[in-house]
Write a structure and sequence with these properties.
Blueprint: H1 3-22, E1 25-42, E2 50-56, E3 62-73, E4 76-87, E5 92-105, E6 109-116, H2 119-122, E7 159-166, E8 173-179, E9 204-211, E10 216-225, H3 229-232, E11 235-236, E12 239-240, E13 244-255, E14 258-268, E15 308-319, E16 322-333, E17 336-338, E18 341-344, E19 347-359, E20 364-376, E21 380-385, E22 388-394, E23 398-408
Antiparallel strand pairs: 1-2, 1-3, 1-23, 3-4, 4-5, 5-6, 6-7, 7-8, 8-9, 9-10, 10-13, 11-12, 13-14, 14-15, 15-16, 16-19, 17-18, 19-20, 20-23, 21-22
Length: 409
Amino acid sequence: MNKGILALAIVGTLSAPLVAATEGSSVTLVGRVQAEYGSTKIDQVGANDYRQASISDNASQSRWGIKVKEDLGNGLSAIAFIDYGFRTGTGTADGPREQWVGLASKNWGSAKFGRVHSPFENFVGGGGLDPFHSTSLQARGSGGAQYAPGNGFGSGSEVDHGIRYDSPEFGGFSAALLLVPVDATQTEGGSGGNSGGKGGSNNYQLGLKYKFGKAGEVFGGYSQDDASDAQRAVTTNGRTGDDENVWRIGGAWNFGDFRIAGQYEKIENALAGNGGTSCGGSARANGGGDAGITTDQCNTSINTNGDGNIWFLTSQYKLGNTTLVIQGGKTTADAISVAGVETANKRTAKNITLGAIYHFSKRTRIFGGYQKVNVSGAHNIANTTTTGTTILSVQPDRATWSIGMRHDF
């Protein structure tokens, strides 16, 4: 037999299973590569300020992933997504982002099972309102203007052990539901982004939205992170853990080339261990960097077992390929008093951000701007190295400027 024909036969035999496996399916490589040159300065008590300037991706938003879809007939599809994040500039190893499998239909919507985004992240406000989301100028976390607990129930991170349902749109109305029926000791608290735990499996989030065509939208939502047995057994600031509740309302309006959007969040009984009261998960967004050099500062955190509120407002104007942005917000962590004695003091963080985004195309952009966060009330900034952790400052203000480039694929 001719050697060329034999080689083709072998290749055809080996490739046949691959063709069968992809028949009726689509596999798409997607992702984002982003890098910024920026500087973060944190005012210290005393003469020495704390500053980090670098080329990096401090918000950890570079990523790559694989989307899978198979047509099952009758309008039903099997869907899946595997997503990993990484940092340009520092060589950080890949970390998990969304990872789920599910079903989708044009008639009844989609259901996803696994590690998912919450409706508060990308359905009712959240990251979808912030044009600087996923940059060092973003509103969440250190930006002090959008709640970002490490359990993923806010404007960042992902939710472990989740079930998410998204409805189709009916006359402008749509809904999204998140369920996390976790009842396992292993998932209690910690900084791993978990919700619930033993005795705390009643965790859910509901978002509702109405769109006025291209003119804008209004939305609202409610979220509950059930306190676990372990969280209820610990007393912090004179209170034991209780179910964390978050309400959110907001909207967006478009007038020609001008856009204004905003949201308000009310938080009750902020739980310890989910990142919303400490530097866990996306509550520390905009921090990090090289080992031993951190600008972690959780300006959207609420006092443990306490209440608070956060508002965010953005205005944008399109001028050709350029979008000019002025936005800001405020986080207020309420004081806690027990029997007339204050156990945790009030803290506020006020944000103002100015910047611009230039689109070379739908996939490629450059961006830059300046953000100032003024903090009042006790709040620490810590420097962690191999020799331990040192508290550098109390009541620090934060100033960030950045210029960066992003390409989506």
